[in-house]
Amino acid sequence: MKPIRLSKHAKEQLQFRGTTEEEIIEAIRSSPWQNAELGRLECRKNFLFESEWNKRYYKIKQVRPIFVEEETEIVVVTVYTYFF
Questions:
Q1: pTM, rounded to two decimals
Q2: For residue 26, what pLDDT band results from cuts at 50, 70 and 90?
Q3: Directed axis angle between helix 21-30 and helix 8-17, to 10°?
């Protein structure tokens, strides 16, 4: 598989979205891809979380990277994280 690179925006959002670069890469490498808006791609992966985020306890964290597949690499444009 092609190397995965996070855009500057995606890197800046990691802390605010509560995810890591490793989780994003794992999601892209192990989850089915779907078409997203603007010709981009997305996927989703659930991770066992069992911890607090913003003073609330959550069992599951879902990571949803938005990315483009270029000729030589996959570029992550942004990432969304959902807590359940």
A1: 0.95
A2: very high
A3: 110
In degrees, rounded to 5, the angle at the alpha carbon of residue 29 between the alpha carbons of residues 28 and 35 is 40
Q: How far is CA 41 from CA 51, 58, 62, in A?
A: 29, 27, 16
Domain enclosing residue 76, as ranges: 4-83
Q: What tokens were used for 22?
A: 């490793």
Separation of alpha carbons 23 and 26, rounded Å: 5
For residue 1, what pLDDT is reported?
Answer: 84
User: What value does the mean pLDDT of the chain take?
Assistant: 97
Structural tokens at position 50: 């069992």
Q: Six-digit token pair at 80?
A: 């969304």
State the total domains in the chain: 1
**What confidence tens digit (pLDDT) does each residue in 62-82 have?**
999 999 999 999 999 999 999
